[in-house]
């Protein structure tokens, strides 16, 4: 590890400097990757601007005009379903002078109207019109409304999950997910009805780098027997068993990862409730028909995963999370990057 590097070397760290932060043989990384602002900026540029980023579940924008706002990296985006049924993802910035176009978290809209000069965009992102349109045409002879729509990202979906990327050169979503789809299906494809997002999500600011929780979901099962133990005692009258930790498996595919166990129905993840256990046992047989015996043993069991870079899920509990990098307003990017 080269911790002797001067601060000025890090305005734009070289590939060599970055490689020295990770010691693959010893299995160690430099803590610098969690606090260095230059690295964080590179992550926005090379990861969040180029990867396929999860933005919504299909059921969150089920009908024409349904929309929600979220972020890709630090950039705001609008996810909206058009009249043609297609889901599109727009940069939440007006092509006129860059004002934020949509301030609502979610809803249904006939159009998106910028509150600065009143440019109005359709559900498909096209510029429909604006007040005093003749002035634009008079003062700007080349003004072409058809070229002034909201900036669109590429959009792809996999079994209910919608992803977007602003990189025209990114591989297809199927190639990006690769063999990881085998694991994703434990969450997404256990029933012919697919999945549905139950409304109500929780948003929190956490004062840490986004990689900390992303990595936690894919490589840190050891914390459970300590961090979650008091909760298990309070709810179940028993702690998180050590034995369970001995049968946790880890798998990686295409840069995405998952840690999971088998045959753990009835453990802390399902709260030990007899009705829940019975239900999961019934489901197990159906899932075996659909996904095979091996994956049916993962259903209802502990399983936490991160799809690179920032989409995590708990297979047993069917909850999903995203770790969005954001600079908390008025604060330094480090170490509060999120
Ligand atoms: S900045 Fe949006 S209408 Fe001018």
Strand order of the largest sheet: 13-14-15-16-17
Which descriptor suits the 3D outline? globular
What's the total number of strands?
Answer: 17
How far apart the termini lie comes to 25 Å
Count of helical stretches: 12
Largest sheet: 5 strands, antiparallel
- Bound small molecules, which ones? FE2/S2 (inorganic) cluster
CATH homology superfamily of the largest domain: Naphthalene 1,2-dioxygenase Alpha Subunit, Chain A, domain 1
Average pLDDT, rounded to a whole number, is: 86
CATH architecture of the largest domain: Alpha-Beta Complex
Any idea how many domains? 3
Helix content: 25-40%
Radius of gyration over all CA atoms, rounded: 23 Å
Q: Could you give the order of the helices and strands?
A: HEEHHEEEEEEEEHEEHHHHHHEEHHEEE
The CATH topology of the largest domain is Naphthalene 1,2-dioxygenase Alpha Subunit, Chain A, domain 1
Description:
The protein is an alpha+beta fold and 338 residues long. The chain has three domains: 7-48, no CATH class; 54-165, Rieske [2Fe-2S] iron-sulphur domain (Rieske Iron-sulfur Protein), CATH 2.102.10; 177-322, Alpha-Beta Complex (Naphthalene 1,2-dioxygenase Alpha Subunit, Chain A, domain 1), CATH 3.90.380. Helix content is 26%, strand content 21%. The chain contains twelve helices and 17 strands. The strands form five sheets. Strands 13-14-15-16-17 form a five-stranded antiparallel beta sheet, with helices on one face. A hairpin with a 6-residue loop joins β8 (112-113) and β9 (120-121). Residues 1-5 and 330-338 have low confidence and may be disordered. Residues 94, 96-97, 99, 114, 116-119 line the site of FE2/S2 (inorganic) cluster.
């Amino acid at each position: 590890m080269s911790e002797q590097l001067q601060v000025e070397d890090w305005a734009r760290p070289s590939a060599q400097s970055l490689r020295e932060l990770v010691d693959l043989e010893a299995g160690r990384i430099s803590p610098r990757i969690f606090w260095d602002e230059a690295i964080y900026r590179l992550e926005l540029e090379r990861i969040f601007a180029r990867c396929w980023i999860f933005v919504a579940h299909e059921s969150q924008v089920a009908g024409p005009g349904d929309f929600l706002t979220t972020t890709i990296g630090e950039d705001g985006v609008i996810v909206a379903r058009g009249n043609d049924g297609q889901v599109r993802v727009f940069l939440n910035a007006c092509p006129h002078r860059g004002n934020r176009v949509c301030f609502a978290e979610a809803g249904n809209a006939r159009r998106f109207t910028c509150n600065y000069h009143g440019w109005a965009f359709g559900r498909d992102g096209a510029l429909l019109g604006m007040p005093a349109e003749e002035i634009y045409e008079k003062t700007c002879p080349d003004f072409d409304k058809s070229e002034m729509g909201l900036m669109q990202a590429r959009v792809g979906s996999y079994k209910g999950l919608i992803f977007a990327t602003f990189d025209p050169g990114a591989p297809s979503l199927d190639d990006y997910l690769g063999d990881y789809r085998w694991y994703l299906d434990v969450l997404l494809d256990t029933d012919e009805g697919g999945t549905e997002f139950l409304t109500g999500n929780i948003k929190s600011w956490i004062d840490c780098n986004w990689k900390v929780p992303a990595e936690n979901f894919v490589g840190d099962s050891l914390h459970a027997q300590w961090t979650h133990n008091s909760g298990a005692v309070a709810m179940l009258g028993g702690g998180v068993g050590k034995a369970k930790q001995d049968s946790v498996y880890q798998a990686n595919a295409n840069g995405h990862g998952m840690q999971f166990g088998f045959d753990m129905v009835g453990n802390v993840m399902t709260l030990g409730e007899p009705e829940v256990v019975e239900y999961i046992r019934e489901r197990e047989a159906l899932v075996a028909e659909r996904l095979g015996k091996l994956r049916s043993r993962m259903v209802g069991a502990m399983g936490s995963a991160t799809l690179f870079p920032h989409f995590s899920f708990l297979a047993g509990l069917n909850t999903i999370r995203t770790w969005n990098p954001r600079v908390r307003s008025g604060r330094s990017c480090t170490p509060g990057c999120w």
